[in-house]
Structure formats: C-alpha cells, structure tokens
C-alpha cells in the first residue's frame, strides 16, 4: 500500500426490484465496501418493533414472556423509522419511550367465546399510528397470496381463554436485537469470469463434453449439440464450488476452464422482512453508512485536539 | 382349646377422597394426588376368620388401611380410558401408567434381575468352600418359586468325600442336611432304589468306547451313591419314619407354631416349606433331587460345564406385582402371628377376656393396628427399602423403587425399560457381572447403559423385548395348571415317557430328562427330541392349540462337556421374551412370529440380516430369523439416526444425553406440580429421523431443534468442544426455555400441633410495602415477577397476630406461573402450591448436544453479521462447531445427518435414518454391487437443487466479506439443549459468611460459599513456586488471624485481654499519642511480659483449644526470622 488511495466511483445497476426483493450489481469498489453495505443492511438500518408489552389478561396456553417475544418478532411497517427518534435519546419523554416521537402504541383484545379455536393474529393488533402496522403479506406480490390471509398467528385460544395487552413499539437496530433487523437475507457474490479454452475442448470426446457441462451442480454450462461446444449460459449461477475445475482435472485437461472472480464487482441479493421495501433498505443503508463515515470525517476538524486523540487522529485523517 | 385364625375375602377399593360425611363418596383422581402431594391409594378391607375347635367360622371385616394403587391398573380410574377421556382427567393423552403416586411423587418399582426360577444351576464358587470343613467349591443351586411368587433357594453342595449336603435358609441361618436323609425322608424307598436312580446316568456300555458325546455319568457316581447311603446308615436311620423323626427333632425349635407337634409333622412342614417349594408332591421332589445330584456329580466329574449366573440365559426379572405380593404376604404373616400372640397373652392374663365375645377379639386385633399393613407397603414404595426378617430370598433390601422423573419423555420411558442387576453387585470389585454377554442379544440393549459407576449393571430392555406375566397377550388371566397339563399331554404324544409312577432308569446319552417348570415330568429319547421341539414350536404358533405362545423350550442338546443336557420347559411369568420370525414352518401358516426366551435362544439358529451367514455355513440351517436388526436396540438407542455409522461409545453417550435433554416434558404442563420441570419453548421435529421416532410418537413430546450447523474453525471460540451460537438466531427464539419450579407451602406441616389452624394465609394491612407482590389472600399474583429476596407469600399467625412472609430464594428473578390451593379443608386454606417460572434462554456456558454424543458448551453468542454467510443463499449458520470434533470421535452419522437434512429441507420431506436398512436391502435384493450407497443417495438429492454433492458450500467471511479459503460443510443438524445450565451452577464469592468455628469461608453454592482450594491445587501452586499466591489463598483470604502468644509459657490459649484503666494522659499537642500500653496478659504466668503477636490461621487456635480439651498442652516456641 503506497498510502495514496485510488479514488473510485462505484456504480450500482439494478437488475430486479420487487417490494421485498432486490438484486443489483455493485461495481468499481472492493469487498470492504460491499461487506460494509451488507452488514449495515442487516444490523444497522432501523425499523420499528414491539419492545414493551404490558399484559392485562392472559389465560392462553402460552406464557407471558412467550407472547411478548412473539409480538416482538412481528415485522411492522417502518417507513417512519428513519425519521423517528430512539427512545433512549428522545427529549420529549425523558427516555421512558412513551411519546409519539419515539413510540407507537398497540392494543390487543381477544377472547374466544365459542367452541372453535380462535386464531389471534396480527390483524387483531390495533395500532395507534396508521403508518406503523403489522406487515401485510397479502398485498405484496411475493407469492404469499393465501385467499384467507389472516396475518401472522400470535396465539390460538380455546373457549373461555382471553388475551388482553398493550404493547409499545420502538425504533431500534438489528445489532441490539434481531427483531429490529429489516433484512431477511442480504448476500453478495463476486462476479465470475469464465474462460473456456476452445482448443483444449477439441481434444475431448463428445461424451466428456456433455459430462463436463453437467458436472456443475448449478446450470452454468450447456452443451450445444449443433456446434458441439460447451458454452457458458449463466456465469452467475456459479457458486465457486470448483466442481468443473475438478472435472477438468479428472478428464486430464487441467486449465480447460478457468474461472476468476472479478475483485471489484459484486452481485447483491437483498430480501426484506417487509418492514421496509428492499429498495428503501439499500438507500437507508447507504445513508447510515454515510452517517457513520461522517463521524470519521469529523476528525478533519479536530487537528487542534490532536493531543486528545494522539496518533489516532492523524491516522483517521489519512496520515 | 384349638383356635384357627385366617384371612379371607381380601378386597381393595378404588381411590376415594376422605370426606367427613361418610355417605359422600367421591373419586380421587391421580392428578389431584400429584397436585395435593398425597398418595393414590384405595381402601384395603379383609375378613379375619376364627374357628374355635370345630365350632362355626366367625368372620369379621377389618380395615387394613390405604393400599397404593398403580396407575392404569384394574382399580385405577384411568384404566381403559381413551385419550380424550384421559385429557379430561388432566392426564397425558398417551398416559401409560405402571407407576404409583406417593406423596405426589411418581415412583416406579425397579425391574431387578433374579436367578431363573425352578432351574437347577450348577455353580463353582470359592465361597462354598468356606461353608464348613470338607466342602468343595461346587454346588447345584435352585431358586424355587411358589405359585404365590415367594421364593426359597436351595443349594446342593458337593463334599470332598464324595457326598453332598442340601442347604436351605430358615430365619437367616443356613441349615445343612445330608442328601441321603432328605432322599429317604421324601418317599418310601429303598437304598437299592436310590442307588439305581443315582447311577442311571452312567452306562457301562459307553465306557468301552471311552467317552461318548453327551454321556454325563462316570464310574465314580456309583461310589458316591454308596457314600451317600452309608452316611445315612451311620446316623442309624434306616426307614423313612426314622429320617422324618431325625429331621423333626432337629428343626422343632426353629419352626414357629409347631412347638407342640410331633416330630413327623414338623419334618413334613420342613419338607413342605423349605425344600423345593415349587413342587407339592414328595415324589417330584425326590426326582428333582436325584436330577440335581446327577447334575452335581457331572459338574464334579467335568462332564458338564458350570452355568454362568451372570448370563441372561439363567436369569429372569422381578416384577412390581410380584414384589408387592411377596412383601404383603410376609407382612400379613407377621401380623397374624402377632395377633395370635396377643390373643394368647390376653387369654392367659385376663380373666375377663371371652373368646366368644367378638368385641373383645376386635379390641385385641385393633390393638395390633391392621392399618400398618398398607402403610408398610406404602413405605416400601416410598423409600424402596424392604423391612423384612427373612429377606424374601432377595439379594438386596434397598433401592427397590426409584422416582420416575419427567425431565423429558425419554427419561420417563427409560425408567420403565430399565433392568437393574442388583445393588449388591455395584460394590463388587470384579467387572465380570458388568460384561455384555452374547446371551443377552436381543433382550438387553448393548448401547443403552450408562458409563461410569452403574455401567453394565443398569441395562435397558431392547425395544422388542417383553416380559411374561399372569396375563396372556389377549389380556386374560392365565391358568398355569391347565397349560401345564396340555403341554404335558403334547410331550407324551411326541414320545416322552412320563416319570410317574417311576423315574426312568436311564441317563443322558440315551434319554434326556424333561423338566416342566422345575418338575421332572419324564424323559424323552435323545433321537426323538429334536423333532419334538420342532413340533411343539409349531404348536406354539398355532392359535388353536393350548400351548401358550410364550412357552420356553429350552432344549440343551448333548455335547462333549458342554452344559448339562435336558429339555427344560417353562411357562412361568417374569421371563424375558422377544419376537422372532420362525422360517422353518410351512409358509401357509399365517402367524410366524414366535416368542423366544434367553434360555432357548442360545441353542437356536437365528439368522440376522447382516449380509453374512452368521458363521453357520450350511451345516446348521437357520430355523428362525430376526424381524428387524433394530430390534436389539432400546427405544432410546433406536432414535439415534444412522447409529450404525457411529463409533459405538458415541451412541452410548447419546443414550445418556437424550435423557438429560430439555424438551417438552408433558402435555399437561399447566396441571403439574413437579419439583422441577424443564421446558423448551420452541421444539421442532427432526428432519432426519428413524422409523422408531414415528412409532413411539416422539413428536408428541419433542426434544430439540433443527439448527443450521457449520463445521469450521471460526473466531477461535469454537475450540475444545465449545460452540458459537448465532446471536440473532437465539434472539429469534432458538433454544429458548423455562424451568418450572413448584414450592409447596403446607401450614399444617410447618407448625407444631399447638398452634395448628391458627396460621392462615393473609397479608398484613399495616405493612403495605409488599402489597404490589402479594394479594389480599396472602398469595402472589399470577404473572407477577418476583425478584430475589422479595416476599411472595404472607402468613398470618392468629395467636401472636404477627405476619411472616416467605421470600424467594436464589439469585435470579422468577415469575409466578400458577397458584393452586388445596380446598379439602373448607374452613381455612392450609396448603398451596406456587409454581414459579424462570426463563432459561441460552447464555454462554449452556450445554448443547447433537444426537451423536457430540456435546459442547456455548462459548459465545456471535452477532449475525459476523457469521460467515453463503454467497448463493445468504444463509448464516445458527451454530458453529469445530472440525476437530470429528476425526477422533468418528461420528459419521452426524455428517450424514447434516447432508440428509439439507436434502430433506430442500425437498420438503423427512428423511429416514433407520440404522441397518442397507443390510436389509442387500439381503432382500441379493445384489451387492449394484445398490447405491447411502452417500450417493444423499449427495444426488443435493445436486438436484444445485448444491454441492458433499454438502459443503462456499462461505464468505462475515467480517471481511472475502471468500473463505476452503469450502465449509454446512447443513441442518438436530440439536438438543441439555439441562445443565450455568445459571443453575455458577458459583462466585468475594467476601461472605465464614464458618463459626474455623472462621474459614463456608462451602455450598446455595449459601454463597466459595469453591475449595484443595490439596491438589495447593500442590500445583507449590510446584510453580508461587508461594506468595499460595499464602494469599490459604491464609490471607481465608482465616487470617493475629494471635497473642505468651513467649514465656508458649501458650496461645492463656493470653487474655485485660481492661486498661483509662489513664488521664494529657495529649501533648503536636506530638503523636504515646504508645498504647499493653492490654494483653498471660493468665498462667500472671504477667504481660513476653507477649508477642503472631499471624496464624484461626484453625490453629481451634486446634490448640481442641487439644487442650483432651488434656494436651501445645506450646509455641517463638523465634525471629533469622532462626535464633
């Protein structure tokens, strides 16, 4: 490392975008940035989740803690989350987290009166804020379209059993508790570059070529019966499992196929829990990443305070 | 006057609640007993009958107390109740019964190994030699069991002079009689007859060709017979009557109740009550004694082998009902004897006593507390100890019952399948009893035995093993006499010569003796016997014949110096049996499942589908076949997936850990009041499971979670069997659990009799500090969270008008889950159960295990983002274990499980992991080369979904985002959470209470004590040369003490603090105060000169005091450091 960093201008190309799913390419950057983005999406993008439950009546078969835990894990629509306050630094309510700036109140009242088992679901959860409600999967086009969609089941009640509670939802991040994590899955992979050495392919028998194309567990290669060649159909399906390379070796043609990961291109897959849209999740993550970097940039102004930070300050300024 | 006393018409009634109003009868259900901590008992009534001389019989009913009732027995309300009804009784829908409820605890009678009944066993033991002078180490022993299950063992010892002695126990003493006397006393016989009988096993013709296969007699038998007969003559006993007189004379003092009878009657009683009690006929006894003598002589001549008493072949089991019945019999006998003595005393002493007055007799009987009978049984079940004079012919008197813990279903179930060898063997130095012998194949599980102290002594029955009882498979009570008669008639029809009226005068090579339940019923020519056995086996299977299906046909064939030959049939209860398929009968017969016992199994040809022929080649074709190889494993061992791919000790460990798993203990959790219940909040059904899993419905009470397990060394926190858990997974509910703990507060129990009923549950109106915790009834609010040392229950004493409260013990908060009150007492509440719930979510230090004996401790809750992730699916593992867990332990099945579960999860189906199935496949198809291996099958199911064939995946570091250098083996594995949790175990102390006497820190976690820094720890510090640290641990941080020592007399005990008079010394300003004058003086020397202070452990002073108490004076010689 010379020290002189090579400034780059990362680009994003969106491939696919649904409410709860996004796939995009991130180019011209390195693994640290890509991973930072992933980590922020999972652990640091804020959402709203039920954090405090006051149980008034609970005669269900599940105990209080269990129900409280289940309520906490319900994804709530959290578009508001970025603008909301954390209750720990809310001025309006002295940090007890019961004001409109930092909390949303929910009520649940359910009692089973007949012999049929009553499913208490997220539909029964009444919110004080119409913008913060349990995520409704029926509306999303995620393939969750059950005609009788009744939301997420919290508990089942039998005749005479009752559940009555008040719940406070607050803003939080996935680092503190997994219930605040907006991301179901965030992953990226290096874009592979696959080269097939056609000259070497010539030396192979037809059956070997077919078996070579089939050796990959994922559909990366195909055998073209017209040209008698193995062609790459979907390089991104490659999982870096080296199966094809091993196959080449077993066919005594090492180097027939060469695969190199592109060190500066990543393919991201983001799945959201539904709390915020996948696209928003990425944007929020970038925002938060910038905010975090702000903290580093701040030290630019702290040259005077060098004695306070010592070598660290100089280091952060790139010295 | 001659009075006869006897019992009649015993009756036990179903459990009933105690009510003040007698007419009100209300059923008492098991759940009520569990909650109220009372016993599930029914009233036991019995008639006592009297007859004076030949007068009319007088009957009077007496209450013999409350007799414990076994759950699901005939008198239990749960009998034949369908699952729905059981649920309405607040019982488990799958309740199986078989245990007792005593004081709210569920107790099971242990199955105990006993010697096989009514079978003469030849034994060689050095202890026999020590009996008396002239005894050898050889004997033939028979444990005779009466119809009422009481047993008397008889030993036939061989003497070095060629004779034999019959030994039996009366009232804790062994009596030894010459066999000749007994032989002559049993029947009217002649010396010649006895001689012929004894020598019948020896045939001179065989002697010509040296030894013939199966001949057991030798020339010496005749000599010995002469010695036996001479012995009798030396005692000048010639006739049967003389022998009886002789026996009667000697045994009169020990035969209770026969003091006034003549000698012949006494002798008859001795023969009846102590010798071969399973036989009621003296001819049969005579024949059996002859048989035993022949067996003994054959043992001595080494023409037959001794039987192994440790082998299952010669063993049976003690059943709960049998134990109770023999104990009850003894107690009733004792009681009746006492009644008799009391009546005797009464008639002798008091003039007023009238035999014909029922009231008088009733008074005497009530004086002897008839209720003690039931309470004796109850106490036996409660404590597991037998209080008995005779010992009941059992090896042990304690540990007959154990508590059936409902930690989880497997543990509960195992209590009923466990078979114990007997606690007398636990202390034995030799390990021979613990050995796994081939005879127990199929009956006892080779895997399911604990390691450590009870290893090999506590076994578990295999899943297919059963025990015969008084009931046949259809549930009807057996008529043993009838079955014996039908077996006998079949035997005769296949060529047996009946022994009555006279024993056949021939021996083993030619004919074999036939014993039916320990009775010599005849002899069968040895060339016919094999056909006969096959014929009877066929009859066993047919439904129409009267031969019971679990008849044991122990045919011991002729051999060169093998086991003593014969045909031993038994129909008795409490034998082990297991089903095998009979393949020698024609295929048109439908029923082919035969029940066989361990005794006959040894001599049968049973093929096991292991791909081989079992070494029998074509010489001995198999007549039977195992139904499935997993039949040899216990229920718990059957649940381990692919246990045939694991190293065997790992399967044993799993059997142990499966029983310590936190799972779903009961479906009636809300009604239970157990001391402690472990509960896993979100259990799952395993993706990879064996057939047994479904068969035993483990899904009803599951015990684990499918966790995504990655095998890699990551973060360094997974070394040495530690495991890293994903924090987010845990936060989402993985392995969350609770402990339910019930506290019973019984006011009647705590208080003395004086202030009973004056204590009630009520809270104080004056002190409102605990009102947020305790309701107006003095009990806590349900759902209330209570911190340590906060009160949860308040008791008001009406006499002192003071309130006291019960405080929560421990160091962590608990939630009140349930409060149950005992409303039996209408007036005031006296007894409550308060159930607490303590959360037990995974923390660092909790123990987890897979189903393959791979246990580990959680070392870190690692954040989700730092976990490695898959580039393709984005999956992060729930759990990381270290690859070093595999090479030395060789738990291949765990790897297979991971691959299979991954495939199963992708395909959306459960995977069958029954062990040995590949062997069955090979056996059936008969083609080995073509069949694909298990790994191939599993691998291809992964490749179908684009995953790596071997179950590995490319993972990226969660911290750096770079690809990990190698592919990581990852997949779902069913993990169990074990009950050992740090929250229940951690122990820490800085300062705290010290012992009163020694001033050293106390021990014990509960009391806030420390952990002992013991001798070995001391040694290690010494070895390191860390003397200062050692001094700190053992002295400064322990009982550091500065003592005043008198250097003149050297005593530390005579020094005493003396009051210094306050001298008015004026303090000079600016100068330090003058030296404080000495305040200590020696009482003995009467001076304070020479007082020194010495630092020492306080125990040293205590030692000096203790020594002084023994008149030993300890003096100290003080010197400075230079040693001057």
UniProtKB/TrEMBL annotation, chain A:
<dbReference type="Pfam" id="PF01193">
    <property type="entry name" value="RNA_pol_L"/>
</dbReference>
<dbReference type="GO" id="GO:0000418">
    <property type="term" value="C:RNA polymerase IV complex"/>
</dbReference>
<dbReference type="Pfam" id="PF01000">
    <property type="entry name" value="RNA_pol_A_bac"/>
</dbReference>
<comment type="similarity">
    <text>Belongs to the archaeal Rpo3/eukaryotic RPB3 RNA polymerase subunit family.</text>
</comment>
<keyword id="KW-0804">Transcription</keyword>
<keyword id="KW-0007">Acetylation</keyword>
<dbReference type="InterPro" id="IPR022842">
    <property type="entry name" value="RNAP_Rpo3/Rpb3/RPAC1"/>
</dbReference>
<keyword id="KW-0240">DNA-directed RNA polymerase</keyword>
<dbReference type="InterPro" id="IPR050518">
    <property type="entry name" value="Rpo3/RPB3_RNA_Pol_subunit"/>
</dbReference>
<dbReference type="InterPro" id="IPR011262">
    <property type="entry name" value="DNA-dir_RNA_pol_insert"/>
</dbReference>
<feature type="domain" description="DNA-directed RNA polymerase RpoA/D/Rpb3-type">
    <location>
        <begin position="21"/>
        <end position="299"/>
    </location>
</feature>
<dbReference type="InterPro" id="IPR001514">
    <property type="entry name" value="DNA-dir_RNA_pol_30-40kDasu_CS"/>
</dbReference>
<protein>
    <recommendedName>
        <fullName>DNA-directed RNA polymerase RpoA/D/Rpb3-type domain-containing protein</fullName>
    </recommendedName>
</protein>
<dbReference type="InterPro" id="IPR036643">
    <property type="entry name" value="RNApol_insert_sf"/>
</dbReference>
<dbReference type="GO" id="GO:0000419">
    <property type="term" value="C:RNA polymerase V complex"/>
</dbReference>
<keyword id="KW-0539">Nucleus</keyword>
<dbReference type="InterPro" id="IPR011263">
    <property type="entry name" value="DNA-dir_RNA_pol_RpoA/D/Rpb3"/>
</dbReference>
<dbReference type="InterPro" id="IPR036603">
    <property type="entry name" value="RBP11-like"/>
</dbReference>
Automatic annotation (TrEMBL), chain B:
<dbReference type="Pfam" id="PF04560">
    <property type="entry name" value="RNA_pol_Rpb2_7"/>
</dbReference>
<dbReference type="GO" id="GO:0009561">
    <property type="term" value="P:megagametogenesis"/>
</dbReference>
<dbReference type="Pfam" id="PF04563">
    <property type="entry name" value="RNA_pol_Rpb2_1"/>
</dbReference>
<dbReference type="GO" id="GO:0005634">
    <property type="term" value="C:nucleus"/>
</dbReference>
<dbReference type="InterPro" id="IPR007642">
    <property type="entry name" value="RNA_pol_Rpb2_2"/>
</dbReference>
<dbReference type="InterPro" id="IPR015712">
    <property type="entry name" value="DNA-dir_RNA_pol_su2"/>
</dbReference>
<dbReference type="Pfam" id="PF00562">
    <property type="entry name" value="RNA_pol_Rpb2_6"/>
</dbReference>
<feature type="domain" description="RNA polymerase beta subunit protrusion">
    <location>
        <begin position="22"/>
        <end position="359"/>
    </location>
</feature>
<dbReference type="Pfam" id="PF06883">
    <property type="entry name" value="RNA_pol_Rpa2_4"/>
</dbReference>
<keyword id="KW-0479">Metal-binding</keyword>
<keyword id="KW-0548">Nucleotidyltransferase</keyword>
<feature type="domain" description="RNA polymerase Rpb2">
    <location>
        <begin position="142"/>
        <end position="317"/>
    </location>
</feature>
<feature type="domain" description="RNA polymerase Rpb2">
    <location>
        <begin position="404"/>
        <end position="467"/>
    </location>
</feature>
<keyword id="KW-0863">Zinc-finger</keyword>
<dbReference type="InterPro" id="IPR037033">
    <property type="entry name" value="DNA-dir_RNAP_su2_hyb_sf"/>
</dbReference>
<dbReference type="InterPro" id="IPR037034">
    <property type="entry name" value="RNA_pol_Rpb2_2_sf"/>
</dbReference>
<dbReference type="InterPro" id="IPR009674">
    <property type="entry name" value="Rpa2_dom_4"/>
</dbReference>
<protein>
    <recommendedName>
        <fullName>DNA-directed RNA polymerase subunit beta</fullName>
        <ecNumber>2.7.7.6</ecNumber>
    </recommendedName>
</protein>
<keyword id="KW-0862">Zinc</keyword>
<keyword id="KW-0539">Nucleus</keyword>
<keyword id="KW-0804">Transcription</keyword>
<feature type="domain" description="DNA-directed RNA polymerase subunit 2 hybrid-binding">
    <location>
        <begin position="636"/>
        <end position="1007"/>
    </location>
</feature>
